[in-house]
């Protein structure tokens, strides 16, 4: 136990984020498993799943913003909500044009949301459990560039979207576990 007590706002925020990160891990894993069965074409199920992923990100950012009010400004989370909502709409429209269009929109979303995640996680380091989020944000930016580049391949597939969700989910799990450990140390 630390001789210096952590502010209760940080502890409350860390606890809420821990629960959110566990939910995000489970969602990403289930989404990836279902999505993996439809990566060769955009079926109605694939289209719904592709739109659902950024919409889930909007909901998670809402929960995060509510939890984070006591620990800092949620302004960037509002930016993430807007970006993810625009991405969901863009992906929905892109589904009508084919996999390359979806990969371009998905890639742009991964780049912007990854940057936002990175910028949000850096000041949260004092809370603990944010290094996985920092890494995830950076990897998201790189993955986004890869999605955009792979859209021009001879036979683009949505497998990379599945490959994006699984490590992202694992990073959320690692962060949740680290937040839990940090809370016990306080």
Notable traits:
186 residues, mainly alpha, 0% strand, disordered N terminus
How would you portray this structure in words?
It is a single chain. The protein is mainly alpha-helical. Helix 3 (about 75-95) runs antiparallel to helix 4 and helix 5 (about 130-150) runs antiparallel to helix 6 (about 160-185). It has helices spanning about 10-35, 45-70, 75-95, 100-120, 130-150, 160-185. It is elongated and about 50 Å long.
Blueprint (SSEs and pairs):
Layout lengths: L7 H28 L8 H25 L6 H20 L4 H23 L9 H20 L8 H27 L1
Helix pairs in contact: 1-2, 1-6, 2-3, 3-4, 4-5, 5-6
- The shape is elongated
How helix-rich are the residues, as a percent range?
over 70%
Largest sheet: none
The span between the termini is: 6 Å
Strand content: under 5%
Q: What is the helix tally?
A: 6
| Element-level helix/strand string | HHHHHH
Report the structural category: mainly alpha
**Tally of extended strands?**
0
* Weakly predicted, low-confidence segments: 1-6, 182-186
């Amino acid at each position: 136990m630390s001789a210096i007590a952590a502010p209760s706002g940080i502890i409350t925020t860390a606890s809420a984020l821990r629960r959110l990160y566990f939910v995000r891990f489970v969602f990403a894993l289930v989404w990836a498993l279902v999505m993996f069965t439809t990566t060769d074409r955009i079926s109605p199920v694939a289209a719904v799943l592709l739109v659902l992923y950024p919409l889930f990100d909007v909901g998670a950012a809402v929960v995060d913003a509510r939890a984070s009010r006591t620990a800092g400004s949620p302004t960037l989370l509002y930016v993430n909500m807007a970006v993810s909502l625009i991405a969901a709409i863009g992906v929905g429209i892109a589904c009508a044009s084919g996999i390359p269009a979806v990969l371009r929109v998905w890639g742009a979303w991964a780049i912007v949301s990854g940057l936002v995640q990175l910028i949000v996680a850096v000041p949260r380091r004092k809370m603990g459990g944010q290094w996985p989020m920092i890494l995830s944000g950076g990897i998201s930016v790189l993955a986004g560039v890869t999605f955009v580049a792979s859209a021009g391949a001879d036979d683009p597939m949505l497998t990379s979207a599945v490959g994006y969700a699984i490590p992202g989910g694992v990073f959320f799990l690692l962060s949740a576990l680290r937040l839990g450990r940090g809370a016990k140390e306080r």
